[in-house]
Automatic annotation (TrEMBL):
<protein>
    <recommendedName>
        <fullName>Lipoprotein</fullName>
    </recommendedName>
</protein>
<keyword id="KW-0564">Palmitate</keyword>
<keyword id="KW-0472">Membrane</keyword>
<comment type="similarity">
    <text>Belongs to the nlpA lipoprotein family.</text>
</comment>
<dbReference type="Pfam" id="PF03180">
    <property type="entry name" value="Lipoprotein_9"/>
</dbReference>
<dbReference type="GO" id="GO:0016020">
    <property type="term" value="C:membrane"/>
</dbReference>
<keyword id="KW-0449">Lipoprotein</keyword>
<dbReference type="InterPro" id="IPR004872">
    <property type="entry name" value="Lipoprotein_NlpA"/>
</dbReference>
<keyword id="KW-0732">Signal</keyword>
Amino acid sequence: MPRLSRRLRAILASGLRPLLLTAFVLAGFVTYSDAATPVQQPSPVRLGVMKGPETEVAEVVKTVAAGKGLTVELVTYTDYSQPNAALARGEIDANAFQHRPFLEAEMAAKGYDLVSIGYTMVQPMGIYSRTYKQLRDLPDGARIAIPEDLSNGGRALRLLAERAMIGLAPGAKLTPTPKDVMINTRKFQFVPLPADQVAGAIDLVDAAAINGNYARAAGLDPRRDTIAVENRRSNPYGNILVVRRADQDRLEIHTLLEAFQSPEVAAFLNTHFEGAFLPAW
């Protein structure tokens, strides 16, 4: 311990000694407290995704998140009914596989308390035809194949309505059915099929409304082969990052969203999927 100077010993011997000792103690306390305060590390996040291309995208997200100090553990599924159930049970922290209409239908049917915190990517639905090069070239009475499920069939009808080919009932919202087609001056005939079979029927109809993933699997390019295609931004069918309501303000969750909406992920989507998957933000 260093020796005190003669001047400091004299000061300590005076009436200032209690004040100086208090200052020394406080200074030591502040220094100790600053040094001892731990830096809180983000908790790892378990992210649920579907096997296939979405897992490829999630691997890029995982790498970007690691650069931000966040560890992401991927949990993959093969059944669309699984990720929301797992999230509601607390088995994962977030999932990224669905669009808002699907989420709302799941919550209404199963009582999940889940929320969306932002867009991830979109698989734009397109109208394809082997015979016609433009949507307006479709003949009166054209047969148009659409997915038979409520969500994707509704997308097809909304896309046609947005291009002024048909008119929908005002209350149809995001999930119209052929019964909601109120204006059909061209007398189009809608042929409902399982979503994964629409692409295979393209040679049997005048046009077909095909989801981006099925189009890519069938060798179709949404950038070149469509006669109409959905917008990627502000698309209600864009995939979303979903969490439990109680977790929506967690720092880790927002870091995960930043990783999804990063330039690295956008570049990967634009270069690897030929327009079948696009950034939705």
